[in-house]
């Protein structure tokens, strides 16, 4: 894996959805350290300030659920920096409630953002990367797309679909030199997690105890996997779902 600041992504341009906070922002920071120019597509207007802080980065306000917004972000990226070499389809939301209380609207929201939003982002990335001769596409799945948990039906189902999407697209686009991989993080301390803990939906101490490494994952640890998958260091890696979970998904003991 590339070390920090070795210029592993020098001269590359990356488009990151949900780049205004959490894992998307951590990936953005790591990509900048490695020399990439960035485009952050996010619903949150704070993406603009984050882009200014990062430098060599622009923000586009929009939703991954709207194809026109994704196309607009790509057009802005190409106008400013040239072809987009790396796309990180990271935007996603949690859904944490007993299945019998989940309304059709709540189900549809998580499917629209996590699954359809990832599909629309991946489709536009694939279209442009194939036309320009290649690229690296990363999809943000979750360990809950690999192993199951109760009271997260839309989240687990959408993330399992995202993990399979990476495999299916990798087969379809490998000859076009587009690599497609997914990252499956464990519990990472971000706004998403803080919100669930604040609402009493998560007990962070129990989560740490359940993790073989005995701790939560740091956002930067996920970002370093993203750097590896985006860079030439992973030139023969495609169709993989890379766990960054402190051993959670491997664990099957008491
Ligand atoms: N935090 C964790 O423990 C964890 C674990 C596994 C997977 N993930 C996944 O990582 C990704 C990022 O999660 P996070 O923890 O950083 O969350 P977060 O809430 O901190 O950040 C998500 C970002 O996505 C943006 N966003 C939400 N809906 C959007 C939309 N429709 N269009 C564009 N942007 C949108 C938000 O504005 C926000 O900036 C998600 O896909 C999540 O499922 C997180």
UniProtKB/TrEMBL annotation:
Molecular function (GO) terms for this protein are: oxidoreductase activity, acting on the CH-OH group of donors, NAD or NADP as acceptor
Q: Can you name this protein?
A: Short-chain dehydrogenase/reductase SDR
Family indicated by similarity: Belongs to the short-chain dehydrogenases/reductases (SDR) family.
| Keyword Transport appears in the UniProt entry | no
Cite the entry's keywords alphabetically.
Answer: Oxidoreductase
Q: Which InterPro entries match?
A: NAD(P)-bd_dom_sf, Sc_DH/Rdtase_CS, SDR_fam
Q: Does the keyword Oxidoreductase apply?
A: yes
PROSITE patterns per record: ADH_SHORT
Membrane-spanning regions, if any? none
Q: Name one Pfam family in it.
A: adh_short_C2
């Amino acid at each position: 894996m590339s070390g920090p600041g070795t210029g592993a992504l020098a001269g590359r341009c990356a488009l990151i959805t949900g780049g205004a906070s959490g894992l998307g922002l951590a990936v953005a920071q790591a990509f900048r350290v490695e020399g990439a120019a960035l485009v952050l597509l996010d619903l949150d207007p704070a993406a603009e300030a984050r882009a200014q802080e990062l430098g060599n980065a622009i923000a586009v306000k929009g939703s991954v659920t709207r194809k026109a917004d994704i196309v607009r972000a790509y057009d802005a990226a190409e106008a400013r920096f040239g072809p987009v070499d790396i796309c990180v389809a990271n935007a996603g939301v949690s859904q944490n409630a007993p299945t019998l209380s989940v309304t059709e609207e709540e189900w549809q929201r998580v499917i629209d953002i996590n699954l359809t939003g990832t599909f629309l982002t991946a489709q536009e990335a694939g279209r442009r990367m194939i036309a320009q001769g290649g690229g690296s596409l990363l999809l943000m799945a979750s360990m809950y797309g690999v192993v199951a948990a109760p009271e997260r039906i839309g989240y687990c189902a959408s993330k399992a679909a995202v993990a399979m999407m990476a495999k299916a697209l990798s087969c379809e686009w490998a000859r076009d030199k587009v690599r497609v991989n997914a990252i499956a993080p464990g519990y990472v301390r971000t706004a998403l997690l803080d919100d669930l803990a604040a609402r009493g939906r998560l007990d962070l101490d129990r989560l740490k105890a359940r993790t073989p490494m005995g701790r939560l994952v740091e956002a930067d640890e996920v970002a370093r996997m993203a750097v590896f998958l985006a860079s030439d260091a992973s030139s023969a890696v495609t169709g993989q779902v890379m766990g960054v979970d402190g051993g959670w998904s491997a664990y099957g003991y008491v």
